[in-house]
Amino acid sequence: MNRQIEVDGIPVTVVRKQIKSFNLYVKAPDGQVRLSVPLRTSDRAARAFVHAHLDWIARQQRAVRARHIPRRCESGESIPVFGVRCVLEVREAQSRRDCGVQREENRLMLTAPAHSTCEQREEILRRWQREQLRETAGALLAHWALRMHVHVREWHIKRMKTRWGSCNCGAQRIWLNLALAEQPPACVEYVVVHELCHLLEPSHSERFWRLMTQFLPDWPQRRASLNRKEQTET
Fold first, then answer.
1. Backbone angles phi, psi at 115, to 5 degrees
2. 100-119 burial code (b ≥16 CB/10 A, e <16)
3. What angle do CA 232, 170, 23 make, to 5 degrees?
4. pTM over 0.70
5. Does 153 have pLDDT greater than 90?
6. Model confidence over 127-142: pLDDT tens digits?
7. 16 close to 35: Cβ distance less than 8 angstroms
8. Which residue among 41, 116, 132, 232 is the one 20 to 30 A from 180 at the CA level?
């Protein structure tokens, strides 16, 4: 059950669920605040919790809005590549066959048609990111599926607004968010293991988190890093 409240002028969506603790989130791209609470939690208790975390909310909202400044794909722009900030250098292509992206340490050379639009340059960048993520995630999926004794029938990459990954247990199908190409390898590995664990336990039950601890003992730290990006995994 969802309910809207307001604390010191900040709209907050309160979601009552069968959980034991309070979970506070600041969502991208505009810094919306969401609070998940146990079913019997009163509005008064929810307000008190939000009020106690107003400074944290303000910091997270500033960070969210700063990270979601529209990308222009222009020279000098900073683009993360698996957690490493790289400076973008846009070059003019002599032919369409020349279009693409090359990386040299902390520099990304994006070759695009003359007078290309932001959307065209971004599409070239995304194609390259997809290739990089497919290579990195593919190796992780193969490694962990073998170690965990699970079978993945198929896996794909797509852009997602609110999730880092998802798993269809019946179809043995996994989807990964293209944005993982910008996250540190440890975070990519966390999402891979998380989704593979769903093939052993579909829900986020106690057994699921025991499995996560068994296979990836430091998963809480990795998840905390991803939670700062305001997306979730299922």
1. 60, 30
2. ebeeeeeebebbbbeebeee
3. 20
4. yes
5. yes
6. 999 999 999 999 999 9
7. no
8. 116
Q: Which of 59, 41, 64, 47 lies closest to 9, judged by CA?
A: 47
Could you tell me if 172 and 199 are in contact, meaning their C-beta atoms sit under 8 angstroms apart?
Answer: yes
What does the block give as tokens for 150?
A: 């699970």
- In 3D, which of 54, 66, 68, 43 has the Cα closest to residue 9? 54
- The CA angle 78-81-86, to the nearest 5 degrees, is 35
3 to 15, 22, 32, 34, 210: CA distances (angstroms): 7, 15, 14, 10, 32
Q: What is the pLDDT of residue 42?
A: 95
**Which residues neighbour 111 within 8 Å (Cβ) at sequence distance 6 or greater?**
90, 91, 92, 93, 98, 99, 100, 101, 102, 124
Mean pLDDT of 92-113: 93
Structure tokens given for 65: 């809005």
